[in-house]
């Protein structure tokens, strides 16, 4: 037991969770996840939806793929991407419920939100 009452043996390795939330913490990647929740998409489909360059979308999809959240399957000369785990939809649903319950509190967070001061700074 440490002086502050914590047992060092009980400390969990949170680095995988941190990596997961970082991968979902980017607006473009989160938009891609939302699109893939609606069904398989090609890079060109995502490019049109997002209005971003193909190379940018490909890099974000590669990040999600490297995290194990997205996989691709070849169909002829094209690659269709989809979510790999339905639990991701459960996580996103829980996040939406939490956002609804907290109202603007997260958005107004001085560190991570979009407070008026941060927008004018």
Q: Which helices and strands occur, and which strands form pairs?
A:
Layout: H1 15-24, H2 27-37, H3 43-50, H4 54-66, E1 70-75, E2 78-83, H5 87-102, H6 116-120
Helix pairs in contact: 3-4
Concise description?
The chain has 121 residues and is mainly alpha-helical. Helix content is 52%, strand content 10%.
Describe what this molecule looks like in 3D.
This protein has helices at 15-24, 27-37, 43-50, 54-66, 87-102, 116-120, and strands spanning 70-75, 78-83. The protein has 121 residues and is mainly α. The chain folds into two domains: 14-85, Orthogonal Bundle (Arc Repressor Mutant, subunit A); 86-121. Strands 1-2 form a two-stranded antiparallel ribbon. β1 (70-75) and β2 (78-83) form a beta hairpin. The chain is globular. The N and C termini lie far apart (44 Å). Mean pLDDT is 85; it is low at 115-121.
Q: What is the end-to-end distance?
A: 44 Å
**CATH architectural label of the largest domain:** Orthogonal Bundle
**Number of structurally distinct domains:** 2
- What low-confidence regions span 5 or more consecutive residues with pLDDT below 50? 115-121
| Structural class by sheet pairing and helices | mainly alpha
Q: Helical segment tally?
A: 6
Major sheet strand order: 1-2
CATH superfamily of the largest domain: Winged helix-like DNA-binding domain superfamily/Winged helix DNA-binding domain
Task: Kindly report the CATH topology of the largest domain.
Answer: Arc Repressor Mutant, subunit A
Listing every helix as H and every strand as E from the N terminus to the C terminus, the arrangement reads HHHHEEHH
Can you give the helix content as a percent range? 40-55%
Quaternary structure of the protein: single chain
Tell me how many strands there are.
2
